[in-house]
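Response to reviewer comment R2.3. The reviewers asked that we include at least one raw input/output pair. We reproduce the pair for Glucan endo-1,3-beta-glucosidase GVI here without editing.
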Amino acid sequence: MERRLLLLLLRFASLSLLFSAFAINLAGSQGIGVNYGMKGDNLPSPSQVISLYKSRNITKLRLFYPDANALSALKNSGIEVILGTYNEDLQSLAGDTSAATSWVHTNVAPYASAVDFRCIDVGNEVIPGDSANYVLPAMRNIAAALHAAGFNIPVSTAVSTAVLGTSYPPSQGAFSDQASQVLGPIISFLASNGSPLLVNVYPYFAYSGNPGQVRLDYSLFQASGVVVQDGSLGYSNLFDAMVDSVYSALQRLDGSGVDVVVSETGWPSAGGETGATVDNARIYNNNLVKHVNKAAGTPKFPGKPLEVYMFAMFNEDQKPVGTERNFGMFYPDMTEVYHVDF
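Raw output as returned:
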């Protein structure tokens, strides 16, 4: 009897360890997604792409604009999706509630029962700019259309870090005057609706634009200690510093309750620009995954998990010549440009 009880206890302990490890693995994958760009004439079919995501345990995906074949392939995949609008549709979505209703009816309603929509991204990197004033009215109309259709899906917009007028040190992060005029009301909308701000964060461009001042090891998560001391906070990587600069800017516009979702980040493997090498891209993306999966947060918000979408799944040959074509982790034939351990 005692021996049987001991065996049962040992078996239970083994199963507990197994399930604990499984849970930890799942928790670790929750913060990382990958952008699915489609600007290529030689890319695999959406069904092949979604199979590739699943085979690499990638559980989040950002789709820049609605594509019926991609959305159909995502059905029952278990992959969480950020779905974007076309920037050229912003004016009609802002000025016509029926256009927003039609957009939701066409691009969300047929898929919502089988696709897990993380949020709708209304406009990508249009603030500041000629279309910036369309963003908030379009967000409101899309949100109203989603609500009327019975869908509880957050609505946001994606900005680049060019919206920052001040980014250094992180505690002094502030939006530019031009961006603040547009972002102030948007941040109020996000705060009142519990929606995040989507931000495209690229340490690569900060480094390649000023390699004499920005250290490569700091950009690649390879620094051995604190590189930037900001009051009581120490930064050992540029990614955290950039994210915290955005949080500081949000706080200055009464957006303390608004979360930042990093909707793009990555490193090019080629293209002829400073630092664009396969080794650097591999190092950056693998270290990024490790950093996010630690769930250690940033110096400003320690312990607060990061939600990050890597750019991008594939090299895309219809993008401008240079680094823009070379942010992919996979070639269009689905072989690896370099390995990322998700």
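DSSP finds eleven helices and twelve strands in the chain. The CA atoms of residues 2 and 116 lie 49 Å apart. Further pairs are available on request from the corresponding author.
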